[in-house]
Amino acid sequence: MATASQLPLKGIFQGIKLVSAILVGILIISLLIGQSPAILISGLGGHGSGTHAGV
Known about the structure:
The protein is mostly helical. It contains two helices and no strands.
């Protein structure tokens, strides 16, 4: 069983901070442009995947 000193808490906290910063950024952008955050998140899904027509 892992003790508290063996767990990578620093990395876990950095990951949590990164995810929360991204979520806050999406919320701020959605408030500024007047769109739902769900629309912004769903719009990120198709970019960069190479599934565009004509590719």
